[in-house]
Design goal:
The chain is of the alpha+beta class and 306 residues long. The chain contains 14 helices and ten strands. The protein has a single domain, classed as 3-Layer(aba) Sandwich (Beta-lactamase), CATH 3.40.710.10. The structure holds glutamine (GLN). Glutamine (GLN) binds next to loops. The site of glutamine (GLN) has 11 residues, from loops.
Amino acid sequence: MKALSIPDVLAEVAVLVRPHFGKGRPADYIPELADVPGGKFGMAVRTVAGEEHVIGDADEPFSAQSITKVFSLGLALNRMGDEVWTRVGKEPSGTPFNHLALLEAERGVPRNPFINAGALAVTDMLLDWTADPAALVRDFAGFLSDQALVIDEAVAASELAHAHQNRAIANLMRGHGTITHDPLDVVAAYCRQCALSMSCRQMSRAFLPLAAGGFSPVAQETIFPDRLTRRLNALLMTCGIYDSVGSFAYRVGLPAKSGVGGGIVAVVPGKAVVTVWSPELDRFGTSVVGTAALEAFAQLTSCSVL
Ligand code: GLN
């Protein structure tokens, strides 16, 4: 049987996901995100070899949200190495991304860098280095995608105005000494970082080092040592989709990161990055249509690390 080309696969995926629209809801705890039309759908594949294929709303910027946690972690690990792991763990949390009780039980040390507590701890580390971690993340993602990126200040302000839970998390960690800066400054920087706008095409380009042994074919530069690249993928595989990471791995079988803007980035090590965006979320904060699209993509291409 002749293998399908990537454009054929994308066209097929777009058909297969149709029944999944209307099953989830856009994030409404960040009011600015509640108004994004639920029917949006974009997908972008960028291969290590340089092929790029897109479908639907792949060039429309969406709110990257928690996907930016991969950029901030990469920056922190590149600069501080294993010292990062003295303040944050590497285990799946089994709890929602904004959970508080586990953090208290574990004396202010977040389970992993992708739940909000862990990402706030990483932002705190970046504050040792720059007064504006969000701009650092924006410029890093911009360098990796070879595009000038912007932070959506309306989304940032909207989240900040409702960031009571994240402020509680940051205060708890300040009490335990996991973070060292003013908790309000950490939360403000974190909300701005999450409000980075990127399209599927830009996201697939920016994540390419994770599929290419740490080298960015877009920036033509080694971004992460090979060993760190494998470790980042391991963290994505075990912690990237929060408390539904097991069923996501079961369905898709690829390291991935979701965000409440409706984006999901999946890495096919050695081959490609696939980004999908569709704003309606399941109860774990992951795009319903996006998960279905990645499941179909993995099945049609037999791309899986498992
Ligand atoms: N900024 C969001 C928050 O803190 C990010 C959550 C997410 O994308 N999972 O709640």
